[in-house]
Amino acid sequence: MKLQNIKIVMVGTTHPGNIGAAARAMNNMCLSHLTLVDPQCPIGETAYARASGANAILDNRETCSGLAQAIADCNLAVATSARRRSLPWPELNPQELADKLISMDDSGRVALVFGREHSGLLNEEIQLCNQMVCIPTNPEFSSLNLASAIQVLCYEIFNRQYDAPLPVKEPDAHDLPAPSSEVEGYFEHLQQILLSSGYLDPDQPGMIMQRLRRLYLRSELTRNEINILRGMLTAIEKQKH
Amino acid sequence: MKLQNIKIVMVGTTHPGNIGAAARAMNNMCLSHLTLVDPQCPIGETAYARASGANAILDNRETCSGLAQAIADCNLAVATSARRRSLPWPELNPQELADKLISMDDSGRVALVFGREHSGLLNEEIQLCNQMVCIPTNPEFSSLNLASAIQVLCYEIFNRQYDAPLPVKEPDAHDLPAPSSEVEGYFEHLQQILLSSGYLDPDQPGMIMQRLRRLYLRSELTRNEINILRGMLTAIEKQKH
User: Fold this and answer.
1) Whole-number average pLDDT of chain A
2) What is the pLDDT at residue B170?
3) What pLDDT digit, counting tens, does each position of A189-219 carry?
4) How far is CA A17 from CA A7, A91, B55, in A?
5) What's this model's pTM, rounded to 2 decimal places?
6) Which residue segments constitute the domains of chain A, with CATH numbers given?
7) A138 in contact with B at a CB cutoff of 8 Å?
8) Which of A52, A141, A219 sits opposite B28 (nearest CB)?
């Protein structure tokens, strides 16, 4: 895949220095697409000072409201996290992530999603993503600086590309992982059917839907597969009436 | 070799934030021995703030005058550099460095030497070292932040040690991939529902079922997931009658 198709998504960042340092780290490793989701600080002098010349990345940043919007056009969204979760999400280490990206098609779009300085990503944000990546750390002192975590992942990815320029065969677009917005459309459809069939408790759809999300996001559904799954749902709905 | 036998040596650092950030990066990766050679700034509030709790590393730092003193007790000194030198020094990449360190004897002492923020190491300082390590970067924007460079090398070294055998927690049997017989039971159930809903052509169920098999087999369904998927099918069936 292409490095320019990878976006670094920073969610709810509170310190402008971290945004500037992230831009520098990205530029060092040939990444250029920075997306801020609901930033909690101005992007001014402090950010530009820490960017140390990577101004174009800050100038061209995208700003979104909510993570879903930021990853809507992405075929793969990977959440970073230090904490283990109550519902564990499929997990890669940084090298496995780099290997996965290098094997992707050139048209694939990828988001690497980083959470807030003190509290990381919310469970519902992680559950928008296909997978998690965890940087191995000292278990007694596991919280990396936000920009340092970005540096480590950008380094792994650049380094892996740099190692091996590999030709990849061009698959049919319908056999590539679908963008997040289409996958979310399927989840809405599924939830609606499961509510109307009485399988989901309308007051507590959560746990079952979370497990279904984990299953289907892990599978990286293609467009063809989403068409089949939604076709099934539509056929079942029609039959009822 | 032992991680505690590796010292991070910072030469002529001018920004206390970089020293604090280096301490944090070291602590994240289980390194603890910090040596400052002729630091050009006070190690006070700014450094401790950026250390973010890695205070012990700052408290126990060693301060030396001149690089020779700092590396006097080391069996291996490795200089970091972004620039190519007029007299090329033997050069490793970060993974080669990590491999080299892991193969060293437990008693070996190692210094990783980092230069000044703007000018790096002097030629005569590099020439006190056994080897150089270069972090691969964007040739158009190659200068990493000092603490970021320390983060990347500490990460590679820790990660390489950590790769060695680790105890892994035993997952619940219901969260492991289910045996094939249970997955096949799900496929039969699914096919029957899709036939009765009219979604599958009874004469040619093949192509759609093959694609569904590929999707679910790729996902390596767990027992818990099969229970949810079959529960959904049963709820939908009941609703019809």
Assistant:
1) 89
2) 59
3) 999 999 988 888 888 877 888 889 889 988 8
4) 19, 29, 21
5) 0.82
6) 3-163 (3.40.1280.10), 174-240 (1.10.8.590)
7) yes
8) A141
